[in-house]
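To whoever picks this up:

The nightly regression suite flagged ATPase components of ABC transporters with duplicated ATPase domains as changed. Nothing in the input moved, so I suspect the structure step. Input below, exactly as stored in the fixture:
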Amino acid sequence: MPGGGHRAGADAGRAGNLDRIVANIINLDRVSKGYGAAGQLLTDVSLGLDDDARVGIVGLNGAGKSTLLRMLAKSEEPDSGRVTHRRDLRVATLPQTFALDAEATVRDVVLGTAWLSEGMGAEHEWAGDAGVRAILDGLGMGYLGLDTPVGPMSGGERRRVALAALLVRENDLLILDEPTNHLDVAGVDWLARYLLTSHRGALVVVTHDRWFLDAVCTATWEVVDEEVHTYEGGYAAWTLARAERQRVAAVIEARRQNLLRKEIAWLRRGPPARTSKPQFRIDAANALIADVPPVRDTVSLQKLATSRLGKQVYDIEDVTLNAGPKPIFKGLTWQVGPGDRFAILGANGAGKTTLLRLLAGVTKPDGGRLVTGSTVRAAFLSQELKELPGHLRLLEAVEEVAKRVKLGDRELSAGQLAEVFGFTDKRIWTPVSDLSGGERRRLQLLRLLATEPNVLLLDEPTNDLDTDTLAALEDLLDSWPGTMIVASHDRYLVERVTDTAYGMFGDGRLVHLPGGIDEYLERAASRLGPSAAASPGVPPKSAESASGLSAAEVRQARKDLAKLERQLAKLDERVLKINESLAQHGSDYGKIVELDAQLKSVQEERAAVEEAWLELAEQVPGN
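Regenerated output under the current build:
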């Protein structure tokens, strides 16, 4: 590998100094740093640097590499934590940006005091004109005289003069931010050899030059996601370590894909209205989910719920309930049993939240009677976030409720439950007061589930949650054994986690909806007038007019679609038979050529039919 000679020289030099005691020169203790719009860059970073370290720092642009260098050099203070230096530590730094006196000469900068890093003084100079000339030659600036003024120089020339000023002085730690910028191949090679053979102190460097990292560095620090991960070896070793990390990530992704397959299974097994797709698409989905179990084992969950709750959960008898002057229920009689999964549907202001508050015991009925089972442990997820403890960190807020949680047949620690809800290891130590709205909503759910309730009352649980978190929540609720009542506008969640729907239409009743959300929509539309309702199985007039087809044309188009689907099924059968024949005549070259021609012809015909189906399906409402 290029640079192997340099590394060999460095290793040989270290082998000769094995008896030397390695001393620590810098410590970072739980250092954090952020910048307004740029956000948080480093969080709770703890590192130590020895006097013989040669560290390369890698990471994405904007990850915080230069910020880390400034922390190490003490040229910038952290927001929290502490940076400590060994007494009398001499630090030389090459930042990405700096200013040189335009009137100064090369001699002033390199040998004088016109530009010096913190802790570096003229008394440390060791070289005369010849030594400076050698360094300037190595950096590709041999054409410059020592009396050349820096004012007219380009930015790259100024940067190399500044680097030369650091190299001519002895130091305990050399910190270089992109030193290979403006150096050609020869200059990079010279700098690598110089640092290996002539620089005796510690070295920390940020550079995108991978060859340079491998030639010079014996350790790598990766700045990623506000953390710093340490690895032994240079760029090649870090690359191998990163590949291993990606392999682990791939395992996690495979688990996520399994969750997606479960969601596909749910979509396929859901109401017919959600699966209006051609038969050949359905067959493909069926093949994908052939080995996926049902989303919920309803019978088993019902048995578990009954064992946890007994026979009585909520009995509502002739209840009258008002929200201020507004009547919500008039003489409501309703029973909720163990294992029931009810969805409450209604427009905003219909009283869904009031009903949940009644069941949670927050609100009392104005008339009638509410009987709650003696074993009921209800958890009420409200739309407010005021009950969260802002003075605690996230994990502490979960552990305040429970350190371990049993959900169905799964037992999770507080940290594992937090991970399910998308909180990474570093995020679980964030103060609750610093969480975003979505994160606080997730924490609210976490704390509810950590109480191990047997009744869940969820008021708009999908507010502020991203799709990945929702999928994780639904996966948990699939196997949750208890009674669940959900008030939500999220159709996907309602159809996924509940079994029975009830509607509130502002008339004081709670209406059972055997047809689920579809029935709710029909009833709600009918209350707005005949023009707003559509007959079951017939597309709304607005959809027909939008398609440009009359009712008769729509019916004919549907017949044509069905005909095309039958053609596709027959063509699929022909493809299957031809493939079977190919397998049987594997040694007959002439027959294989003939069958291959037939296969291509059938596949072309199938592609044409499928294209025709797609074009027609776009014109027909409901497809």
